[in-house]
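Below is one such record:
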Amino acid sequence: MFGKKNFQPLDGPMPPLGLLDFESTMKFREIALEQFQTRGWDTTVLLDWMIRTLLSSLMADSASRIFLPKTETSPFVLDDLLPLSAVEPMGRVKLPLTRAFLLAPAWNNRETAEALHQAVGYSMEALVDEAPVGVYLKEFNLAIVDAAPHESLCCRFLGKGTALLDSYSLRDLAPAIRTNGEDWFVTEADGSETYCPVLEPRMAALYRLGLERYYPSLFTDQWEEE
């Protein structure tokens, strides 16, 4: 019963949602939406649940990334998660870290330990940094920190700290960014389109579900382009 076996991640008692498959997620959405629509139920409840589940999973994995072998981690690059560099932010927001879902993928052991020690002395309103340290997606109430991930992560753990973030809306992203779950397609300023691979399927699924939930006409336009 307790003999060794060739273990695979999906064999575990709680497979990490990082193994999420975009196609399977959209298939669940299709089947569940059909059931909701057939019974006349409010479909926004389903979309909200899927969005919140994905956000919760991303946030948990963001925090626990520090426990991975350091040969498997590297500094976090925002565009690897969502290619936002193609779009100008609509402004900036000063956000208490405890009031949002936070993705701050820590990757350095020493910096994490130092940040945790220093965060103990921070005030509740202390700014993590004077300059913007990441982005804020308002429909998801999601903060993604790439410039000070260790400090932000530790501050939120201690229930304190504020971050200055560039703010974005899905409404502004939709004309420039779309995805089929395998690639991100980005419309550049000159009208040309470039693409890059999806490295985190949960973010691609979250983006698509968010458009469907908050801007259904934009979601329909993107769906028809594929």
About this structure: The helical segments are 22-38, 43-64, 78-81, 109-119, 149-157, 170-173, 201-214, 216-225. The CA atoms of residues 80 and 199 lie 6 Å apart. Residues 43-64 form the longest helix (22 residues).
